[in-house]
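We close this part of the discussion by returning to an individual protein. The encoding preserves chain order, so positions in sequence and tokens coincide. The sequence in question and its structure tokens are set out directly beneath this paragraph:

===
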Amino acid sequence: MRLLRDLLRTNFSTLLSMGLLVAAPVIGSSSLSWVLLQNQQWLTQLSSAQSLAYFAVIAFTMAFALTPTTFVALVTGFYFGWLAFPGMVLSYALAAMVGYLIATALDHGKMLRFLHHFPKAEAVMQELKHESWQLILLTRISPVLPFALMTFVLAVMRVEKKRFLLASVVGMLPRSLFFYWLGTKAQDVMNLINDPDTGTAGKLLVAGLIAVSVFGLYWLFNRALNRALQKGQKNSS
């Protein structure tokens, strides 16, 4: 009970932020879906400057979990086509970096310091940091793991910034390409958002990406745990 009180007292801002990042995508995507329903032609009439502003805005909304990345890929593909795909990738990168900087500013290393109470958990965390490239790729490749929340978690772990950014972009590409392609093929944006028809091949692809992420993360955590236990045994002997 004391450790729980210490966790809440020293990490309240971190835990609150993580909770908000879970709830925000549902509220944000619902609100923006309603806006698009009322103004379906709006994004087709943007000037070049307004298009650049659009990509800056979606970077902000993704960073703060106001829009799921899948939602952004579908809508951007529908309205802008393939010429805008590099802009969306840059928006992903900007969103990841903004989220990383905000998370580190909020946390200030408090969560890692709290783990000093749990030596085994701290040892596993250190092992995972050594495998941060694979860890980031596996969290980004899954279509079901929230982008902003995973950014926050990885930032709290203090993974190296440049590696975080590069692996985030690489890991996001497979699912982003797929959902962006769906957006370019759609006929109606609201039907697309409410029920993206991925087809059998698409469902298999999504299931495959989820499976790679789940089993890859399980293997990574299991290996980190075994290494931490082996080092603990060597230090105690």
Q: What stands out?
A: The mean pLDDT is 78.
